[in-house]
Amino acid sequence: MRKEPEILKQSGLSITESRTKILELFYKNDGALAHADIEKKTAAAFDRVTVYRTLQTFVEKGIIHQIPTTDNSVLYALCKHNCAQGHHHDDHVHFICNNCEKTICLDDVTVPEVKLPKGFKKKQSAMVVTGVCGDCK
Amino acid sequence: MRKEPEILKQSGLSITESRTKILELFYKNDGALAHADIEKKTAAAFDRVTVYRTLQTFVEKGIIHQIPTTDNSVLYALCKHNCAQGHHHDDHVHFICNNCEKTICLDDVTVPEVKLPKGFKKKQSAMVVTGVCGDCK
DNA sequence: GTAACTGCAAAATATTTGCATCCTT
DNA sequence: AAGGATGCAAATATTTTGCAGTTAC
Questions:
Q1: What pTM, to 2 d.p., does this model score?
Q2: CB-based burial, A23-43: b 16+ in 10 Å, e otherwise
Q3: Could you say which architecture CATH assigns to the domain A3-131?
Q4: Mind telling me how many Å the CA of B33 is from chain A's nearest CA?
């Protein structure tokens, strides 16, 4: 069985064309994708609403995760480290290249721990680094 | 002279009511503010467009900075460490409380350095921690 | 066959732009 | 007085919701 349907099945989702194709996009793409990217890359083959709902479902099932950004957009990327539903290991650093505009998951770079002030309790942490990536330097 | 007009003057901006009031809001508020918060807290005294333009201007002048979030919203907070235009020292960790929903600048917690893969060059980095804050624990 | 998924329409929300008027300096 | 800032109108973009028809299992 191909990779994409297999993942959908494991997550308890029905295997549909839109889900398979969108998931495939994430595998083919090395960086993160925004909603608008997906519309472009699928040539609007699916309804805009379907794309919204698919992304939302994928996040809920832990197939992809959201990446924080400072402009008001949301970027999505694959969860590489076997994220199970409710057990995200989305603990790697994200890199946004100012040159090629790609957002890359640095899967091998773990978000370092920080010492929080008294009384604060950490649940999750995320880190975004901007600069120039390996391809653009 | 009051604090707010003084800051506007230093940044080379004309001192207007909307700018003074919005800046005052940031000083009175301990957490970060979203565009919608500002509209609410000013009781829509200013045009929505003015708020957009004011926030944009403040970011450009280094008076406030944007905080990365995973939902598609932008949060703004004061730059505490004398950010000059183009010389941001927005290097502190941001904390989002899952209980009171406030976003707090941990001015004393610096974003730690991370070792990037070969060829990557860092320009800026941001870190967001979620959990429970000191007031809610 | 049934539950889940999709597409369409439409509503709600958010953001941007142009321009005339007003305010700060 | 002049340039910048604001408000209004309107265009544009983004996201959400309801529902009927379709598809996966």
A1: 0.87
A2: beebeeeebbbbbeebeeebe
A3: Orthogonal Bundle (1.10)
A4: 13
